[in-house]
Each structure stands twice: as structure tokens, then as C-alpha cells.
Amino acid sequence: MRLHFLLAAFIGCILLPLEALAMTQINSVRLWRAPDNTRLVFDLTGPVEHSVFTLSAPDRIVIDIKKTKLSTELKALTGGNSPITQVRTGNREADELRIVLDITAQVTPKSFTLAPNQQYGHRLVVDLFDILPNNNARPTAATAATAVSKPATTAVTTKPSSLPTSGKRDIVIAIDAGHGGEDPGAIGPKGVREKDIVLKIAQELQRQINTEKGFRAELVRTGDYFIPLRRRTEIARKKGADLFVSIHADAAPRAAAFGASVFALSDSGATSETARWLADSENRSDLIGGAGNVKLDDKDAMLAGVLLDLSMTASLSSSLDVGQKVLSNMGRITPLHKKRVEQAGFMVLKSPDMPSILVETGFISNPNESIKLANRSHQQALARSIHAGIRQFFQQNPPPGSYVAWLRDSGKLAIGPREHVVRSGESVSLLAQRYQISPAQLRSANNLKSDALKIGQILTVPATTLAGQ
Ligand SMILES: [Zn+2]
Question: Which domains does the chain have, with CATH numbers?
């Protein structure tokens, strides 16, 4: 008897700590608020089984997590702009943790777990999507100029449009600051985070573009939260974007690597994406109802394929053009990693209806460059150079119906000084004709004593007014 009891007590002593060890622990919790959803992230010591459901009157979210115990406070979930007013926890069964969130309004929850990556361990992610009244009709391309939606959580200056009455619309530039929220992007030598730097550059670029009549810039990401890649292009499309510009400052495998680069979609990426869009009816309806110029609803399958292919080819050619202009301008204020636009299969570049570029403003992994990238005046200079490239592209290729097209067609478009790199076979008279200036103007702007040009010579092309022709 006595021996049994001792044995049981002994086994109990061993089993209890073992069971405690087998429990997964929640070590910390983070909350990210986006304009239309809230993301909760629970950091775990191992994988978990869980379930999430809602209760109403009052509105609550219940999160049950098996074989888990809480080793941290949940204060981070309330306060600020969180829709969660109160958090309660308890044990439903001996080893099942229940977390109850009191919330201010109805939401649609979605949850999933994430395996460890370089920055974090096991995580449970709970997304709470706001339920918007009247399904919150978003502006389409046609109404985007009149209905400018403003994210509630930020103080970003969205430029009110003053153009719908004249019928001369703004050219819309969607600026996508990479990463955000749970995804910090690359991290520099002194803990500088890519997601913070690129948001600053994106906001500065938006500010600059919005000072220019005929243009409107829209931020895809307005704060510190994550947006899935496909969703980024959807947001841009819903805002009626004429151009999608993604801003990054990634790390290179070698710390010594430096310089800016610009990417457009690769040809193979474009081909496979065209096939995917054709195969995916949801994508097709997005094009049909969205901002794109591609209308597929009344076309048979083969014609739709040809049209989509043409649209993708045109978008890619515009992407390469605007990308080269941005790259040339960036080259004046920062070293370039590559002198030409590079091509890759990046997800955010895969829109068949929107020219799209990805700008790597520099390598955050390079100690000197990461200091520069964090510097306010360098961020402004980067934004100025990206802006200059975008402006040049649209002055030469204004979308029909835009204010800039009207300026050009009525001979009011002044084009600022540009640079031209002399190529084989070019002469002063040929270049003067191309840029619609006199040979004398070109000679005097460059102090040319003769008409002999060298290949690779950089000429300044003086400002001109382009008459529509
Ligand atoms: Zn990045």
C-alpha cells in the first residue's frame, strides 16, 4: 500500500512537469490595424490546433487553442485604434485555452497558423475583417476622380480632385510601399527596417506627385500593416491606377552590394500570367468591372486571349519605358546597381492592364546605403527622381481624356530639360528634329563648337513646348 502510494506520487512528480512541458505557450502577441481589418498575431512555442468563432449581442470573438497556456499579458490587443475593448481568458478544459475578445463592431474572422521563418517562430494569425455598411461601394475607374476614399486610420493627404467638371481626369499613380506589419522586409545593420523606410519614401513621393496638377497619387499601404501581394494590385486597380509603383529597399546576399535598380515583369512571367488571367474567371471579371482598358465580357475565348495578350504586351512595354526613365533620373542622385531595367517574375508586377514597376531604392544590407536610406533628405531626393521619371513618361504618353493629354494637345505642355545619350548614327540635326527644337538651341545648350558628336556623349536637351501633332 505504502509503496504504491509513494510510487504514484513519484510518477505524478515526473508526469506533471512533463505535461507542462508538452503545453504550447503563447509568449507574446502583436496587433496590426489596417484601414479595413485588424490582424492579431500570437507567438507560440510550437504548432497548435485552434478554432475561432463569433458570438453576437454583445459582439465577441472566441479563440480556442488546444494544449496551450498563456505566458504573457494581452494588453497589446486593446487601446489605440484596436476594435477590441476587452480581453478575457480562461480554461475550457484542463489544457484548452479560451480567449474571448469583446469588440466594438461586427467583424468576419479568418485564422491560420504560420510555420517559423527567419524572424519569427510558430504563429497563430487571426484576421478580423471589418463589415462595412452598404458593402462600401468603392470607386471604379469612372468615378475615381469624384469619389476619393480616405483611409480612416491615417493622416495621409489625399488630394481632392477638382477635375471632373472639365472632363479632364487626373493620371492616377498607385504607390505601393513594400512589406508592412508582420513582414518587416529586410533589416539593415542598425536594425533599420525596410517596411518603415519604404513607407516614408512612398509618402514623400505621394506628397510630391499631388502637388502637380493633372496627377493624383494613391498609397496602396497607408500604415504599418501587411497586405497580401495580389491584394496590392487589386487595391491599385480599384483606385483606377494608370501606373503601379512598388517601393523597396531589399537586402543583398553580399553586404558590399549597393545601388538602386528598377524591375519590370519578365517576359516568361507575362506569358504565364496572361494564361492564368484567362483561366481564372474571377480575374476576368476584375478586368471587366475594373479600371483596365481590357473588356473581355462580350468576346469569345480566342479573341479574349488575343486582346489580353496585346494588353499585357503593351503594359510591359510601357513598364520598361517608364522604368528606364525612373532609373535614369535615380542615377543622378544615387549609384545604380544596374543601368538597365531588370526583368523578374515579381507577383506585384503581374497586371495585364496596368504598367507596373518595382523600384529598389538601394540595398538596406549595405552599411553606408542603409544610413542614406534612413536619411530624410535622401528619401526626398529619391522621391524627386522617381517622380521626374514618372512625369516624363506621362508627358510623352498621356492617357486619353487626361488633363496632361489635353495640355499636350493644346500645345501647353512644357517639357523640362532632359538628357540624351548619343547613339550611333545620331546627328545634331536629327536630334533637334526629334526633340522639336532648333539645331542652334541644341548647340548652345551644350556649348557645342562643331556638330561632331561622340557615341555615349551626354547632351542636355533644353525645355520645349510640345505642340500636339
Ligand atoms: Zn522588399
Answer: 24-131 (2.60.40.3500), 168-406 (3.40.630.40), 411-466 (3.10.350.10)
